[in-house]
Amino acid sequence: MPRIPRFFMNDPKAAYHVISRTALPGHKVLGPEEKDYLLNLIRWLSQVYFVEVYGFAIMGNHFHLLCRMLPEDQFSDEEVKRRIKLYYGEKRKIFFYEELIKKWRTKLGNLSRYVQDIKQRFSRWYNRRVDRRGYFWADRFKSVIVETGEALLNCLAYIELNPVWAGIVGKPEDYRWCSLGYRSRRGTGKNFLSLNLGLSRWENKSEKERFELLREFVYGKGGLGEPEIGTGEIFRQRVRHFTESLAIGSKGFVNKAAAKLKGFLGLKRKKKSKIKSLAEDANMVFL
Q: What angle do CA 219, 176, 65 make, to 5 degrees?
């Protein structure tokens, strides 16, 4: 039976929370060396693909990635060529022609190809390293559609808190394989991570100020430091929405996602039993 195509929402406010688990048994499949290699892959390919990365967390048997695919038409042919060269390396000679550029433009703006590239390259490296064959990653990656703004900020906080809730560290910035830890070590200068979360109250803030606001927000949601009483526990009770929902965001955004999903599935109005409470069936939530 052929796979059902993955549902993507062609909306400038749509980001994606990607989760992918290993197929190998145990909770410590990914050690320090594996995590470093996977992080370097994500960092490099994020400069190749048309993607804006907001955050990540690489754990012992899975990883989280929060990102938004950028519109293909905002990149010139010269920029596409530059990214192809970055992908293959300067030593490789490439003959560019219109059809090739068109093909790559489509590829570079595709979330599935981006994540697939990360996972396949890691699998080949890992299998060579330990002299094994077979699948490394379990099934397809999971993706949750996240509206930019408040929902994106909350989802990013959930991702940053993964190593804390797993009991690995007491503070997320002490874990170098999550984005808060990465930002703490690399600073807020030029890197592959973005803090343009779509929050109007952050618009006139510097990168350093945004980083401090993010850290403060994560601490509050995680019950770290001195947050409001009960904030951390309430947030933990809601974390399943960040991994099990189809879409999270405002009511308008989620209703729009539900309508697009209905069209994607080819549901007709007469099939009332199938389209009734579509948002609930798809496990969509409002933040």
A: 75
In the block, tokens 């006139």 appear at 204
Q: What is the pLDDT of residues 53-105, one digit of tens each?
A: 999 999 999 999 999 999 999 999 999 999 999 999 988 899 999 999 999 99
Q: Residue by residue, what is the 3-state secondary structure of 56-83?
A: EEECCCEEEEEEEECCHHHCCHHHHHHH
What is the CATH topology of the domain spanning 14-70+109-244? Alpha-Beta Plaits (3.30.70)
Q: What is the pLDDT of residues 264-281, one digit of tens each?
A: 777 545 444 443 444 555
Within 10 angstroms of residue 269's Cβ, the number of other Cβ atoms is 7
**Under 8 Å between Cβ of 252 and 11:** no
Closest CA to 28 of 139, 156, 167: 167
Q: CA nearest 53: which of 80, 17, 93, 88? A: 17
pTM of model > 0.85: yes
Cα angle for residues 113, 64, 278 (degrees, 5° grid): 80
pLDDT at 203: 92
* Helix, strand, coil percentages for the chain (3-state, nearest 5): 50, 15, 35
